[in-house]
Design a protein that fits this description.
Largest sheet: 7 strands, mixed
Number of domains: 2
Strand order of the largest sheet: 3-2-1-4-7-9-8
Structural class: alpha/beta
Distance between the termini: 31 Å
CATH architecture of the largest domain: 3-Layer(aba) Sandwich
Number of strands: 13
Number of helices: 12
CATH superfamily of the largest domain: Vaccinia Virus protein VP39
CATH topology of the largest domain: Rossmann fold
Order of helices and strands: EHEHEHEEEHEHEEHEEHHHEEHHH
Radius of gyration: 21 Å
CATH class of the largest domain: Alpha Beta
């Protein structure tokens, strides 16, 4: 099947036309979303990132015009931002919200200060989305796009979604959200994420529709139905990630129905453990790569963990990406898949081209 954007690509040979509009990326990490916008033809002029190590990788690969390596809490209050940032077509951001992840502690972690890794300050992750909206209120880009975890849409956390809508409304935007699966968008992994897409009210015009008597939304269709790409289609040779005796014990005792190590150890030791260590079967689509799970993905057909070349393709990162000494699994897991963002940005431009 032919895909509009391929998961196998290189920065060296990419055709970044930069003719669709200007984008600024917050919580930029290694630039997953940035590469998506570039593939779709946008010009990403700068970034904001709190982690110096992530910022170093971003700068090495993208050489942005503007770089602000600081917490968004201080960045949003700067009085010296360049004029170009007040003329954006898209303000992009992926506010870290692990507190809402289905796999996390959820309510137990709400309101607690946390950090992802060394070099970062402690922050209340629940509030980062609101700081991002504060920045949008100041810069007033035409469109605001924010990506987040699927868990934000479930249980008590839906109250945060209502507050996001409320704050975007106050900031001057009509908003809607979409739950999208990367595996249906040309990315070789099952990765469901929610995208909030907001259009500035004074530009909405013909792009609005009345959902009900109380609700007006920007008219946008985001439906993707690509044939999923299985692990065997991206599989390569090589073993550059450690495979311990513990891993080998699990692998040697696996049976066809096992999907994770805990299935094996429950059967052979009557003990459930290693829930996050998963077998990736050739005929299946790879599970979501997170910042920690990348080191726990094991090939079912070979006694080895997925290698870095496979993880790069699974994340739809360019094959020649410079990780600048950072852990490959961490950057891939923390980033929005470029092809996923390219698909979304391309549709927004096609459907709302008169806004740009």
């Amino acid at each position: 099947m032919s895909y509009k954007f391929t998961y196998e690509w290189t920065l060296k040979n990419a055709n970044f036309t930069k003719d669709k509009g200007k984008v600024f990326s917050c919580f930029a990490c290694g630039g997953g979303s940035t590469m998506g916008y570039k593939l779709a033809g946008f010009d990403v002029i700068g970034m904001n990132e709190i982690d110096p190590k992530m910022a170093a990788a971003y700068i090495a690969n993208h050489k942005p015009k503007y770089s602000f390596i600081e917490p968004i809490q201080t960045f949003k209050n700067r009085a010296d931002l360049p004029k170009e940032l007040y003329e954006l077509d898209i303000l992009d951001g992926s506010p870290p919200c692990s507190s809402f992840s289905i796999a996390g502690n959820r309510e137990k972690d709400w309101g607690k200060a946390k950090k992802f890794r060394e070099g970062q300050s402690f922050q209340i992750l629940d509030d980062l989305f609101y700081h991002f909206i504060d920045l949008a209120k100041v810069l007033q880009p035409k469109i605001v796009i924010a990506e987040n975890v699927k868990g934000l849409l479930f249980g008590k956390s839906i109250s945060y979604v209502r507050e996001i809508y409320k704050q975007l409304d106050v900031a001057g935007y009509y908003c809607q959200h979409f739950l999208l699966d990367a595996s249906r968008m040309g990315v070789p992994q099952r990765r469901e994420r929610v995208f909030f897409i907001a259009l500035r009210k004074d530009l909405a015009g013909q792009f609005l529709y009345q959902k009900d008597i109380f609700t007006v939304l920007p008219k946008l269709e985001l439906k993707f139905n690509h044939i999923p790409i299985t692990y065997k289609e991206i599989k390569t040779e090589g073993n550059d990630n450690s495979f311990t005796e513990h891993d080998l014990l699990a692998w040697n005792n696996r049976i066809k129905s096992d999907s994770k190590y805990s299935d094996v150890f429950l059967r052979i030791k009557n003990k459930e453990t290693n829930f996050n260590s998963r077998f990736i079967k050739d005929e299946k689509v790879c599970n979501t790569i997170t910042s920690t799970s990348g080191s726990k993905m094991v090939s079912y057909s070979e006694p080895r963990k997925l290698n870095n070349a496979e993880l790069i393709k699974i994340g739809s990162f360019p094959l020649d990406y410079d990780f600048s000494g950072n852990n490959v699994k961490y950057i891939i897991g923390m980033s929005v898949p470029p092809v996923m963002v390219a698909q979304i940005a391309s549709e927004i431009y096609n459907q709302w081209n008169e806004v740009f």
